[in-house]
């Protein structure tokens, strides 16, 4: 008997884990590999979680999530994103944005539907598409365009089987932020070709240089065909609390609910009560974003001073994606040798899609002191390559 399903066999385990396992075995390691904030959760949210436990909020909530939280999210979406989603019918609280993504793909993908996925991008989009029975079609985003996904690249890959375009802005691993004009053009493509859009906006508050976050679902005719996926993990340093949400038309949310109610039942109750304080935490979010921006500036300047490395300036998230092609090493060999020789963890760019080959992802969700030390070690590593 073949125990594992064909679908699961088609999926590779995440290559990122391997680097954490290698790093754990070494001493004196500095990790620039981590994809989560190094900050504590804001005090108000922490306090909300403690009170939720004290008040015995240990029960299931509505499958949709706490009505009060959905109302607050609906207000936030209206005010900040210009998305008009009814709190009762068009918002679903999920266990992290990961569940939101999983529900989104599983709800809309039919066997052999083609899903356009930016490359490089977050590691879950391709496997989740495959697990839903779809066919991932990668759309390259190039360094010369600061890794922004361009409408013409999307257009080139349309076929009769295309069902959906995935957008991720700000992007993990490149930090690219899509321009409003490009989003408008991508929306036109979606409308003209009757396509869905899954828009992952998890890093919306981590944006620098006065760049603007723009939600595709705010455009005319786009709300009906967009699933906006968001959550609290990155901006509110709540990764372990597993809380996210999706906003979409009623029919889509009802479809997602069919999976959510059997698979997850509801998002964690304590986390939902804690998140009720999210709109009181603007200052904390802003303060964290300010620190990330300073770290980004430091990395951007110093990486470009290292011989044979270059990096475009990321506009968002907490990653920078330097070009290491001059080293003559593949992304994986670069990361492995840097770890073995200089005890610095970075993540090979190819793990985020084939267009990430020749790059590595550096996360700046670690202290300035660690970043400074790591930069010295990377400089030494490049020097020792004797190029
Ligand atoms: C772009 C992007 N989307 C979604 C996720 C999933 O995050 P979570 O499930 O914690 O909300 C991540 C995590 O790294 C991410 O980088």
Characteristic terms for this protein:
2 domains; 12 strands; three-stranded antiparallel β-sheet; Aspartate Aminotransferase, domain 2; binds pyridoxal-5'-phosphate; single chain
Walk me through what this model shows.
40% of the residues lie in helices and 13% in strands. It has two domains: 6-41 and 282-384, Aspartate Aminotransferase, domain 1 (Alpha-Beta Complex), CATH 3.90.1150; 45-279, Type I PLP-dependent aspartate aminotransferase-like (Major domain) (Aspartate Aminotransferase, domain 2). It has a seven-stranded mixed beta sheet, with helices on both faces. It has a three-stranded antiparallel beta sheet with strand order 9-12-11, with helices on one face. The chain is of the alpha/beta class and 387 residues long. The mean pLDDT is 96. The longest helix has 24 residues, at 282-305. The structure holds pyridoxal-5'-phosphate. Pyridoxal-5'-phosphate binds next to helix 5. Pfam families: Aminotran_1_2. Residues 28-378 form the Aminotransferase class I/classII large domain.
């Amino acid at each position: 008997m073949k125990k594992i399903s064909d679908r699961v066999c088609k999926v590779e385990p995440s290559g990122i884990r391997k680097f954490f396992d290698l790093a754990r075995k070494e001493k004196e390691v500095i990790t620039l590999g981590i994809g989560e904030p190094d900050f504590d959760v804001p005090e108000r949210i922490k306090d909300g979680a403690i009170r939720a436990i004290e008040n015995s909020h240990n029960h299931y909530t509505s499958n949709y999530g706490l009505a009060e939280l959905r109302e607050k999210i609906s207000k936030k979406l209206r005010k900040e994103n210009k998305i008009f989603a009814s709190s009762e019918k068009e918002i679903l609280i999920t266990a992290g944005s990961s569940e939101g993504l999983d529900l989104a793909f599983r709800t809309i993908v039919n066997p052999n539907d083609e899903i356009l996925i930016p490359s490089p991008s977050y590691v879950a989009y391709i496997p989740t598409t495959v697990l839903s029975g779809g066919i991932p079609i990668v759309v390259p985003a190039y360094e010369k365009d600061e890794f922004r996904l361009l409408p013409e690249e999307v257009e080139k890959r349309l076929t009769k089987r295309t069902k959906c375009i995935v957008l991720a802005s700000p992007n993990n691993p490149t930090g690219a932020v899509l321009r409003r004009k490009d989003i408008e053009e991508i929306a036109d493509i979606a409308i003209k070709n009757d396509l869905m859009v899954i828009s992952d906006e998890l890093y919306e508050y981590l944006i620098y240089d006065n760049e603007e976050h723009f939600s595709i679902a705010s455009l005319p005719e786009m709300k009906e065909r967009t699933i906006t996926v968001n959550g609290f993990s990155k901006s509110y340093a709540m990764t372990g609390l597993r809380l996210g949400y999706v906003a979409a038309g009623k029919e889509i949310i009802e479809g997602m609910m069919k999976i959510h109610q059997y698979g997850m039942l509801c998002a964690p109750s304590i986390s939902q009560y804690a998140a009720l304080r999210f709109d009181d935490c603007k200052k904390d979010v802003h303060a964290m974003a300010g620190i990330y921006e300073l770290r980004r500036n430091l990395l951007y300047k110093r990486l470009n001073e290292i011989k044979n490395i270059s990096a475009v300036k990321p506009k968002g998230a907490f990653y920078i994606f330097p070009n290491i092609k001059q080293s003559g090493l593949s992304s994986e060999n670069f990361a492995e040798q840097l770890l073995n020789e200089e005890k610095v963890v970075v993540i090979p760019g190819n793990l985020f899609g084939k267009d990430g080959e020749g790059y590595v992802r550096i996360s700046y969700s670690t202290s300035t002191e660690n970043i400074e030390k790591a930069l010295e070690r990377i400089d030494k590593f490049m020097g020792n390559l004797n190029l």
